[in-house]
Every structure is written in C-alpha cells, then in structure tokens.
Amino acid sequence: METTTIRTQVLLDKEILEQALQITHLKSKRELLDYALRELIRHEKQKKLLDLKGAICWEGDLSAMRENEVL
Questions:
Q1: pTM (two decimals)
Q2: Domain containing 47: what range?
C-alpha cells in the first residue's frame, strides 16, 4: 500500500511526548504520531463493532463447530 505524506507543524505537550516515546520505544516523533493516529483509528473501529453487540442474531452451536475444526 502506497502512502502519501504531508508536512505539518504541531504544538505538543513536551512531557506527554517524552513519556509516549519512552513507553512505546519508538525512535522518532514522526513514528510516534503515526502510531498514535493508527491506534486511534483502530480503537474507534473497535467501538463501532461493540455497538453491534446484540444487534446481530446468530444461531449455531459453537461447541459443534469447534469439534469439526480442522487444524
């Protein structure tokens, strides 16, 4: 997948930035911001999936499906 990049300036809290770099072990601010944005997107998509809980009716026997599982 080809990505397009943009150049921007952002004012960030220095303490939070340093803490995030330390926790994630990422090497650059650019890597950190990319990681943070991807995690935000992933988290929001997960929340949308959780909103479906109870909205989808599934009928089946999970135990029987597991017994027939091919490994």
A1: 0.68
A2: 14-56
Write the single-letter amino acid at 57.
Answer: C
Provide the pLDDT for residue 53. Answer: 81
Residue 7 lies in a domain: no
The string over 15-29, giving b where at least 16 C-beta atoms fall within 10 Å of a residue's C-beta and e elsewhere, is eeeeebeeeeebeee
Residue 19 pLDDT > 90: yes
CA distances from 31 to 13, 17, 43 (A): 16, 12, 18
The pLDDT, as a whole number, for residue 30 is: 95
Kindly state the average pLDDT of the residues 36-40.
97
Rounded CA separation 51/32 (Å): 29
Is residue 52, in this structure, part of any structural domain at all? yes
Report the domain count for the chain.
1
